[in-house]
Each structure stands twice: as structure tokens, then as C-alpha cells.
């Protein structure tokens, strides 16, 4: 649990970003650099990149973020900033793949994770009924 001035929260998201046309551009060095970039973006949003890994054509992130952050804005920044840096730093590697001027696919996967199972939450709420 993390706390803010008027909030206690435990928000986690599992994110998956896929390269444009699922082109296999990542090697170990490029994945490491991508993780560094995404950690810095998360830091600026007061979020924490808890886990990062990937394969040649996609990356997985586990992010712990505060409630004041709109997840879609964080995702747009993660994809936008990493695209700019990776395209600038790995121009030769990316240009030969035929990806054009876009690095990431427009789509992404985002799922909430962690915390109490929904069945336990439902039982807790049902147990909070007011006395008659």
C-alpha cells in the first residue's frame, strides 16, 4: 500500500505493448534501454515500474501507479517517449524492418492485477449491510 495526502492506494496494471506489424526489433541491449526509458517516464508520473521484460516483438510491464494518474495518459507517454528515444538511438536497427515512422502498434493490453480477489471483496461488501 502507498499513501498520499488524502488517499491510500494499491493500484497495479499489467501492460503489454507490441511493435508495429509485430516486427522483431528488440535484442537484449535494446530491451534494457527500453526499460531504462520507461522507468524514467514512470518516475515522472510518480509511478513505479515494478517489472519489465520482453521478447523480440513486444514488452510486458507491471506498473504501480497513483490514483491521480489516468492510466491512458501514462501509457501514451510510455509509448511516445520510448518510441522517440529508441528510434533515435537504434535508427539502423529499426529502419531496416520496414516499420515506417511508427514504432509501437496503436493497440495495447492493460489489465488490473494484485490485491484481493473479487469474490472476497463481494463478500466483504455484502457483510457491511446496515442493521434493520
Automatic annotation (TrEMBL):
<feature type="domain" description="Transposase IS200-like">
    <location>
        <begin position="8"/>
        <end position="128"/>
    </location>
</feature>
<dbReference type="InterPro" id="IPR002686">
    <property type="entry name" value="Transposase_17"/>
</dbReference>
<protein>
    <submittedName>
        <fullName>IS200/IS605 family transposase</fullName>
    </submittedName>
</protein>
<dbReference type="Pfam" id="PF01797">
    <property type="entry name" value="Y1_Tnp"/>
</dbReference>
<dbReference type="InterPro" id="IPR036515">
    <property type="entry name" value="Transposase_17_sf"/>
</dbReference>
Amino acid at each position: 500500500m502507498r499513501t498520499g495526502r488524502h488517499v491510500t492506494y494499491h493500484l497495479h496494471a499489467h501492460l503489454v505493448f507490441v511493435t508495429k506489424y509485430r516486427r522483431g526489433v528488440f535484442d537484449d541491449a535494446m530491451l534494457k534501454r527500453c526499460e531504462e526509458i520507461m522507468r524514467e517516464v514512470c518516475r515522472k508520473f510518480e509511478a513505479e515500474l515494478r517489472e519489465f521484460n520482453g521478447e523480440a516483438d513486444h514488452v510486458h510491464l507491471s506498473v504501480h501507479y497513483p490514483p491521480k494518474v489516468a492510466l491512458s495518459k501514462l501509457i501514451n507517454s510510455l509509448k511516445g517517449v520510448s518510441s522517440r528515444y529508441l528510434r533515435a538511438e537504434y535508427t539502423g536497427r529499426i529502419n531496416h524492418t520496414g516499420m515506417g515512422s511508427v514504432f509501437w502498434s496503436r493497440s495495447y493490453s492493460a489489465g488490473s492485477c494484485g490485491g484481493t480477489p473479487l469474490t472476497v471483496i463481494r463478500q466483504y461488501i455484502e457483510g457491511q449491510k446496515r442493521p434493520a
